[in-house]
């Protein structure tokens, strides 16, 4: 992202954002509520437009619309706070539909790959159920499998554990740590320090629409440089 700006009316929500994420890198984005973290994620796959600046994915600029945009979106997996599964489709269908529709996979291929992914995230035995029959932690792991089924180049996670009961947070974070260790490129909005310490290469601290600080997790959590980061960490730790 270079020189990215975004307004909602008079509100300047992304202020000259410059952020480069290398292949295989895991970047944790942290910051107070309202600082623009979700807007940043949403801008990356064009769920939000930007006013100026540019965003390149694997060297390519985001297309405005149409089939090219659909393909680009498929390169960017996204997992939200609310699991956003298709409520009336089985777990298996949730994971096979996208690859068949957007990637042109046959039903057989899509199913085989989906079962591999559901096994990887530990919910293969739930494949025939509807999302509502699963726990929140299981649903979120299905959402991760669904995103991975599209073979994305980068995965975005926007507070993936903040709607979960405490006992389910680790099962989702463990899945994400495993993905990070396998070399997936990831941008993760989370306040889970344990995840940042285990998996992040870099922590980006946002406040008021700006990237205020970037450092290693160790540096950030033990020795934040800016007053804003100190203040924020004082509140969440
Ligand atoms: P965060 O994810 O860090 O909490 P957001 O990116 O959701 O922050 O929001 C940044 C700012 O933009 C907030 O002030 C929020 O109220 C505002 N905002 C977000 N989405 C919209 C929208 N669709 N319309 C108007 N304002 C919005
Ligand atoms: Mg948010």
Descriptive notes:
By secondary structure, the chain is α/β, with parallel strands linked by helices. It has helices spanning 37-44, 66-75, 91-101, 107-120, 136-149, 166-181, 193-199, 217-222, 227-236, and strands at 2-8, 11-17, 26-30, 52-54, 56-57, 60-61, 76-79, 154-158, 185-189, 202-207, 210-215. The strands form three sheets. Strands 7-8-9-3-10-11 form a six-stranded mixed β-sheet, with helices on both faces. Strands 2-1-4 form a three-stranded antiparallel β-sheet, with no helix packed on it. Strand 1 (2-8) and strand 2 (11-17) form a beta hairpin. Helix 3 packs parallel to helix 5. The protein binds adenosine-5'-diphosphate (ADP) and magnesium ion (MG). Residues 8, 11, 13, 31, 33-39 line the site of adenosine-5'-diphosphate (ADP). Pfam families: ABC_tran. Its main location: membrane.
Please provide the count of β strands: 11
Give the CA-CA distance, first to last residue: 30 Å
Q: Report the sheet-strand fraction.
A: 15-25%
Helix content: 40-55%
How would the global form be characterised?
globular
Mean pLDDT: 94
Sheet with the most strands, sense and barrel status: 6 strands, mixed
Major sheet: arrangement of strands:
7-8-9-3-10-11
Detail the poorly predicted runs: none
**Total of helices:** 9
Radius of gyration: 18 Å
User: Which molecules other than protein and nucleic acid are bound?
Assistant: adenosine-5'-diphosphate, magnesium ion
How do the SSEs run, as a string of H and E?
A: EEEHEEEHEHHHEHEHEEHH
**Protein structure class:** alpha/beta
Pfam families: ABC_tran
Family: Belongs to the ABC transporter superfamily.
Protein name: ABC-type polar-amino-acid transporter
InterPro entries: AAA+_ATPase, ABC_ATPase_HisP-typ, ABC_transporter-like_ATP-bd, ABC_transporter-like_CS, MetN_ABC_transporter-like, P-loop_NTPase
